[in-house]
Amino acid sequence: MRKVTTGAEVALWLFLIATLLTGCRGAAPPPTSWPGLTVAEGVVYLAAGAKVYALEVETGNQKWEFPTEEKKGPFYATPAVEEGLVFVGSNDGNLYALDAATGNQRWSFATHKPIIAGPTVAGDMVYVGSADSKVYALEAATGARRWEFATGNWIWATPLVAGDRIYIGSMDHKMYCLDAESGQKLWEFEAGGAIAATPTLAGETLYFGAFDGKVYALDAASGQKKWGFQTGGWVWSQPLAVNDTVYIGSMDKVVYALDAASSQKKWGFATNGAILAGPAFAEGLIYVASEDRNLYALDAATGQKRWWFAAQTSIFTPPMLANGAVYICSQDGRVYALDADNGNQRWIFPRTEQ
Asked: Which strand (E) or helix (H) includes residue 299?
């Protein structure tokens, strides 16, 4: 019998994870949601608490918020933006499609279980996973369901769409490769722990991390394992592949630079907190967010720290890059826009009280 998952159970899981991270250090209680951040077409989209916000990328001024009255959150998933629509999943089990210009709801699709995973848009389709253990393929314009695929446990990972294939990890320890048109399973690979982050495809290799502490490299066509690299903690971070190097963070507090072909460690940089967010890259720098409240800018070749910026609370959301700025969101729902070269703050949302 399939285990029934409730919003309360998911919230409890996130609470336990937050407790694991903060321990007994007198930290603030865990947030009511896991903020998601996306930058697209000159707008910053934030899903935090019970709201989705659209902010001007240059100033941080609010353009709109959703919902205006009726509660639909909390939101745990990163929004996806395409063709004038913002897609965001909610703890109420619905995927919402919003007008990107106004925030008005176009349609919603009910999975009946919390949506922790961010959706992915490809062509005229949007793909999303749910805590009901299923992956759904929906028509982006209407929300009509084309197909669904059942895994063995919750899905917290955003699907990766590459050509006619979908790669999706599940908390059942498996990475699945599906046909994008039909949802038919092409292959599966079983890791030693739950998979909660989006994989990365570089060339013919698929990279991802798991809660067994390993980083995996698979042949993307067949699912055959190429190599595995052991870290000292759960791996929740999405890998970043740049040229011949894979960058990935671990809950052992270290971000690793690995040789993409062999898994040989090139360098490691230790922070003072768990790393759950995937890194970002621009102009020779790797940007890494940590539970220790800091965003670090590291030399991609050496791991040497160039600068860092301290937020007011932990950062579990991946940094976003656009217009010479790096955008981060801390667990209290604050968004910071920083100069990508030196970390100087450009703006903060919401505005700091005087």
From this structure: strand 294-299
Tokens of 247: 């960058």
Where are the chain's structural domains? 1-158
Up-side HSE of residue 62: CA atoms within 13 Å toward CB? 14
- Return the pLDDT at 33: 64
**Residue 316, C-beta contacts closer than 8 angstroms, at least 6 positions apart:** 34, 35, 276, 277, 289, 291, 331
In terms of phi and psi (left: phi > 0; alpha: psi -120 to 50; beta: otherwise), the region of 50 is alpha
Q: DSSP labels for 109-176?
A: EE-SS---SPPEEETTEEEEE-TTSEEEEEETTT--EEEEEE-SS---SPPEEETTEEEEE-TTSEEE
Q: Is 186:193 a contact under the CB 8 Å cutoff?
A: no
Collapsing DSSP states into helix, strand and coil, what is residue 67?
coil
Q: Which CATH class is domain 1-158?
A: mainly beta
The model carries a pTM of 0.92
In this predicted structure, what is the pLDDT of residue 76? 87
Bridge partners of 160?
167
pLDDT at residue 201 tops 90: yes
Of residues 108 and 15, more confidence is placed in: 108
pLDDT of residue 32: 55
Write out pLDDT tens, residues 9-49: 444 455 445 444 444 333 333 445 689 999 999 999 999 99
- For residues 247 and 279, is the Cβ–Cβ distance under 8 A? yes
For the chain, the distance separating the N- and C-terminal CA atoms, rounded to the nearest angstrom, is 55
Separation between Cα atoms, residue 98 and residue 11, nearest integer Å: 25
Residue for token digits 């965001």?
A: 88
Element holding 346 (H helix, E strand) = strand 345-349
Distances (CA, A) of 315 to 28, 76, 188, 342: 13, 14, 32, 19
Query: Under a CB-based contact definition with an 8 Å cutoff, are residues 205 and 222 in contact?
Result: no
Local confidence band at 351 (pLDDT 50, 70, 90 cut-offs):
confident
249 with 278: CB under 8 angstroms? yes
Q: State the residue for tokens 């389709």.
A: 125
Amino acid type, 351: R
Q: What is the largest distance, in Å, between two alpha-carbon atoms of the chain?
A: 57
What token pair was written down for 268? 């490691």
